[in-house]
Amino acid sequence: MTSPPASRDAPLFVVFNRASGRGNRDELGPAVEAACAAAGRRCELLPVTRPGQLPETAREAVRRAREVDGIVVAAGGDGTINGVAQAVLGSGCRFGVLPRGTFNYFARTHGIPAELDAALQVLLTQEAMPVHVGRVNGRAFLVNASLGLYARLLEEREGWKRQFGRSRFIAFLAGVRTLLRGHRSLHLEVELQGRSWQARTPTLFVGNNALQMEQVGLPEAQAIDEGCLAGVTLKPVGRLSLLALLARGLFGRMGDADEVRSFAFQALTVKARRFGAKRIKVATDGEVLKMALPLRFEVAAQPLLLIRPPGLAPERREVRS
């Protein structure tokens, strides 16, 4: 898909969540308005002020942007960015990101700086490029989707963040605690490219972020760059083995572990082997919800038109070197 020509005067419609993110939330609006004024660009700020308001606000931003060939911008962490992307995908609108979260995997893999002023310069000066999106049962994900242990880890991590604050260290401690509490294996039937296999695994992880794959040492980063998704399952293992796998991931060596199976794909179907299972918890970019089985993971037919710098992100060049 060819991205639309750059427009140096296209107005920005900025969706931001006052209830999430990091740093001084009150600085966002003035910084965006000042940068746009200096560039001679119009902007509208659309704050999300209550739980559950994000989808409605994102749809309103898309509606306004389509009327004037504007750009929809998501300011927040990966969850907020995902929520806005749900509305933008398939609309034809260009999409911008101002990362304000803890990990910012989506922004980092596409070379968008974490610093607000630098991210605004990218937004105001660069062109839109197509980036592919993952979907599970029609719901988009930009970073990853998962079920089983990893989804539970994310769900419990949010509780720790609400209690102790948002930081990578808190997220790590929450993950260790989840692993130590034990887990149950999933009994799945996985269908891929006309063949199927039975999988008993603590978790099924589907990645759509090359940087995340590179950092933990899985080889499917290149396949993600080429428009695929990456599937990861684990053999049934005990708590100590899971902690050892976590340590391997921290040192970028998970791909060397015999307990890990990883593969690239365009479309994947997952069914429950146990009779009676109809719904399962699935995490998409950190948000956990119940979905009906079977699950269909696939690359979305249309990409996002993301405003980003050209080439490989500096952080990813360092990982690959």
Explain what the structure shows:
- It holds the Pfam family YegS_C.
- It comes from Roseateles asaccharophilus.
- Keywords: ATP-binding, Kinase, Nucleotide-binding, Transferase.
- Residues 7-140 form the DAGKc domain.
- This is Diacylglycerol kinase family enzyme.
- Helix content is 35%, strand content 30%.
- The chain has a six-stranded mixed sheet, with helices on both faces. It has a six-stranded antiparallel sheet with strand order 7-6-17-14-9-10.
- Helix 1 (28-39) runs parallel beside helix 5 (116-125), helix 2 (54-68) packs across helix 3 and helix 6 packs across helix 7.
- Strand 9 and strand 10 (195-201) form a beta hairpin.
- The radius of gyration is 20 Å and the shape is globular.
- It folds into two domains: 12-132 and 302-320, Rossmann fold; 139-299, Tumour Suppressor Smad4.
- The chain contains eleven helices and 18 strands.
- The model has no long low-confidence stretch (mean pLDDT 87).
- With 321 residues, it is an alpha+beta fold.
Report a brief summary of the structure.
The protein is of the alpha+beta class. The protein has 2 domains: 12-132 and 302-320, Probable inorganic polyphosphate/atp-NAD kinase, domain 1 (Rossmann fold); 139-299, Sandwich (Tumour Suppressor Smad4), CATH 2.60.200.40.
